[in-house]
Specification:
The chain has helices at about 5-10, 15-40, 45-50, 55-85, 85-105, 110-140, 145-175, 175-195, 210-230, 235-260, 275-305, 310-320, 320-330, 335-340, 340-365, 375-395, 405-430, 440-460. The protein contains 18 helices and no strands. The radius of gyration is 21 Å and the shape is globular. Helix 7 packs across helix 16. The protein is mostly helical.
């Protein structure tokens, strides 16, 4: 361990509770607003479509591109934290995000909305999120305290995603969908003010090499995969071509970084990250948790607005159940970590979530009342809130401090890729068969349940006890 790391441990590990809360607050709020941005547009689909003269598919593309750009750039931006410093990346990302929010608020058409929301906010998020988890890992070395920190950050992130439809619906109904982006810009300004007290535990290293070729290969590969999925139902030939190109580019990326390592150079990612069995399974659970959360949010929102013709506020109120469930389980993250193993929390989280998805299919199809959504959404929120923190904790704790930049970027990239997959896959099924009403909704939710079973399988393969990073 370096002298800087040792001094960081001494400075932050014994920090009193009040000081710890002040340090975590801007980080947690940053995760909240970024997650909020990924779901709040779901309840504005009709309003945005009418105002900008576009379609549900157009708004879905904007939402998915925002999530995808985050996923593409998360790994490269995590490497830049070593070169530029964690605090500088955090503040710079917030500034870009704020500019994007304001640009989105005044957008005259879909193209400008995509530029502001998908590009500027997406790039800003990719730059500011890796420092959030790196700083939390460096500040809190004890497993329980780190679980508390990740619980606050991941919990507010989950709440942002779950409460996005409610807050977005309230703002859209009371003022305008454009005011929701002004709200984001205001929150970003508050975070910048709160973040002035942040001190980077480790110095920046401007001489640290940056793998531009690896960044292009990985980014292009992920883009082709997700953008290809968006073509389902409208251009299946292009879908197949993009999926093949995406897989080829990702294979080329892996071969390239392996060759770089063998040549003694520093690649974008170390291949050793993929040889950690515990981390690999935990990354799968992370990916699918966000896939289900954002996929459920998009599918239910579109279904309520296009099939049942609910207003933005009525759609948002429906999601209160998910927000309450996620809030309850997130607030108990530290207590759960003391009483139960990380694996146990993740396994039970998936079981509860899958039960919720099942209820969202069965009750909603059979019962036309708005109450039919409440039990399922509550269980989905509660189950996801219970396992978001353990999954992050397992991933981050699987590697020593000198690899936190890499693993944080990979972790956030995998999570955001899950978010974009959820909106792209389930959303595309729903939009492509929108005329089938309940049938399209059921198939879209069923696809999320299938992924949930894969996540449960990965959780069951996690070791019962978290190994110590070396």
């Amino acid at each position: 361990m370096s002298d800087a790391s040792v001094s960081a441990d001494r400075a932050f590990a014994p920090a009193p509770a009040l000081s710890a809360r002040r340090l975590i607050l801007p980080l947690a709020l940053a995760q909240f607003i970024c997650s909020f941005a990924g779901s709040n547009m779901n309840v504005m689909i009709n309003d945005i479509s009418e105002d900008l003269d576009t379609t549900v598919k157009g708004v879905q593309t904007a939402i998915t591109l925002f999530l995808l750009i985050m996923a593409i750039l998360m790994i490269p931006c995590s490497k830049l934290t070593d070169r530029w410093g964690r605090k500088r990346c955090f503040t710079g990302g917030l500034a870009l995000y704020g500019i994007g929010a304001l640009l989105s608020a005044v957008s005259p058409n879909l193209g400008v909305l995509i530029l502001g929301n998908s590009v500027f906010e997406g790039v800003g998020t990719a730059l500011l999120i890796p420092p959030v988890y790196i700083l939390a890992t460096l500040w809190f070395t004890d497993l329980t305290r780190r679980a508390w920190a990740f619980g606050v950050i991941s919990g507010l992130g989950g709440i942002g995603a779950a409460a996005g439809p409610l807050i977005g619906g309230l703002i859209t109904t009371a003022i305008s969908w454009r005011a929701a982006f002004v709200f984001q810009a205001v929150v970003v300004g508050i975070i910048i003010l709160l973040g002035r007290r942040i001190t980077d535990p480790l110095p920046a290293d401007p001489t640290r090499p940056f793998d531009a070729v690896g960044a292009v290969l990985s980014g292009a590969g992920m883009f082709c995969l997700v953008f290809g999925i968006l073509q389902a139902g409208s251009n299946n030939v292009l879908l197949a071509v993009l999926l093949v190109i995406g897989l080829v580019l990702l294979a080329a990326f892996y071969l390239y970084i392996r060759r770089q390592e063998r040549a003694g150079k520093e690649p974008l990612l170390s291949t050793g990250l993929f040889r950690n069995r515990t981390c690999n399974f935990a990354l799968v659970t992370q990916n699918i948790q966000w896939l289900i959360l954002l996929g459920t949010s998009f599918v239910v929102s579109v279904y309520l607005q296009t099939v049942r013709e609910y207003s933005a506020i009525k759609t948002g109120v429906v999601f209160t159940a998910a927000t309450v469930g996620l809030l309850i389980s997130s607030l108990g993250a530290e207590r759960f970590a003391k009483r139960r193993a990380q694996k146990t929390l993740i396994v039970w989280g998936f079981l509860v979530t899958l039960t919720g998805v099942g209820l969202l299919i069965g009750l909603v199809v059979a019962w036309s009342s708005i109450v039919a959504f409440v039990p399922g959404l509550f269980l989905v929120g509660f189950g996801l809130g219970a396992m978001l923190t353990p999954s992050v904790n397992v991933v981050q704790s699987s590697f020593p401090e000198q690899q936190q930049g890499e693993i944080s970027g990979l972790s956030r990239s995998v999570s955001n890729l899950g978010s974009s997959f959820g909106t792209a896959i389930a959303g595309t099924i729903l939009v492509a068969a929108a005329s089938r009403g309940n049938g399209a909704y059921a198939w879209a939710m069923f696809s999320l349940a299938i992924f949930g079973l894969v996540g449960l399988g990965a959780a069951l393969l996690l070791p019962a006890k978290q190994p110590t990073a070396t």
